[in-house]
Write a structure and sequence with these properties.
The chain has 107 residues and is mainly α. It contains 4 helices and no strands. The protein is extended, with a radius of gyration of 19 Å. InterPro entries: P-loop_NTPase.
Length: 107
């Protein structure tokens, strides 16, 4: 397994950070954690000033920071049969009332 790598992007507004991040994600099959994405989903219509941004961005960083550190320090997770059974017991097939487009791929 390759060593995890964290790409941290910073720069001025509209300098191409999001475009570069999407490119890195595609090139490395990476996980993209986007502050803009999290802010817009968790705090819709609540960021109207720089002060609002700072408040909410700090809240996200307080949660995501430790998560990213934990993700980068882990390697393969191999569940025991009992753990696999326990975890999968929580999964249920989608119900038509959920309005999902279900696509089944058979290998």
């Amino acid at each position: 397994m390759p060593t995890p790598v964290l790409h941290l992007l910073c720069g001025k507004i509209a300098s191409g950070k999001s475009t570069l991040a999407r490119s890195l994600k595609a090139e490395h099959s990476a996980v993209l954690l986007s502050e803009d994405h999290w802010l817009s989903r968790l705090y819709p219509d609540q960021i109207k000033s720089v002060a609002d941004y700072i408040l909410h961005a700090h809240r996200i960083r307080d949660v995501l920071g430790p998560l990213v550190i934990d993700m980068l320090s882990r390697h393969d997770f191999a569940a025991t049969d009992a753990e696999f059974d326990l975890i999968t017991s929580y999964f249920r097939a989608p119900d038509q009332t959920e309005g999902l487009d279900v696509v089944i791929h058979r290998i």
